[in-house]
Amino acid sequence: MQRMIFINLPVADLAKSVAFYEATGATRNPQFSDDTAACMVISETIYVMLLTHPKFASFTSRPIGDRSSVHALLCLSCESKDAVLAQLDTAVKAGGTPDPTPEQDYGFMYGRSYEDPDGHIWEIMWMDPAAASGEAPAAT
Questions:
Q1: What does the radius of gyration of the chain's CA atoms come to, in whole angstroms?
Q2: Contacting residues for 138 by C-beta, under 8 A, at least 6 apart
Q3: What SS3 state is found at 135?
Q4: Going by C-beta distance under 8 Å and a sequence separation of 6 or more, which residues neighbour residue 68?
Q5: Is 134 exposed, middle or buried (0-12, 13-18, 19+ CB in 10 A)?
Q6: Beta pairing class for 46-52 and 5-11
Q7: Residues 94-132: b if buried by 16+ CB within 10 A, e if exposed
Q8: pLDDT at position 137
Q9: Looking at CB atoms within 10 Å, which of 46, 97, 125, 140 has the fewest?
């Protein structure tokens, strides 16, 4: 079995967050969703669990952070630079905030970022597979 990742995120407005993630391409798995949580499927190995603040708080004794601090940067790969730009455009049209981190353009690798409605930062990046494997020199 492939390893899977389940990212748990606290959200202030579950319905708004579900709508945002659906607009950016995720699908809601009703089997693991209710009025306190929504399981959003990014791929067959990547899931985002959107949890209301009370539900999230039931898993930890630590306080839930706010937009004034960052605890993680979540990064997803894309199949091309154009796909990075399309994902950014989709996220912004769905209510996301563009570029909370600087644009990264190294020729062989390109990245942008956006914040979801709760301020969780998603980085989206493309890397030339040949350059990453060492098969070809990196583009300049």
A1: 16
A2: 106, 107, 108, 128, 131
A3: coil
A4: none
A5: exposed
A6: parallel
A7: bbbeeebeeeeeeebbbbbbbbbbbebbbbbbbbbeebe
A8: 56
A9: 140
Give tens-digit pLDDT for 48-104: 999 999 999 999 999 999 888 888 899 999 999 999 999 999 999 999 999 999 999
Task: Please say if the pLDDT value at position 37 is more than 60.
Answer: yes
C-alpha 116/C-alpha 38 separation (Å) is: 15
Count the neighbouring beta carbons within 10 Å of the beta carbon of residue 45: 12
Residue 15: pLDDT above 70? yes
**Are the CB atoms for 40 and 74 separated by under 8 Å?**
no
The closest alpha carbon to 114, from 69, 64, 73, belongs to: 73
Tokens coding 113 = 């970022």
Query: What is the pLDDT of the chain when averaged over all its residues?
Result: 93
Strands 104-105, 109-115: pairing is: antiparallel
Percent of the chain with pLDDT over 90: 84
| Domains assigned to the chain | 1-59 (3.10.180.10), 72-140 (3.10.180.10)
Structure tokens at 77: 């790969």
Residues 110/79, Cβ–Cβ less than 8 Å: no
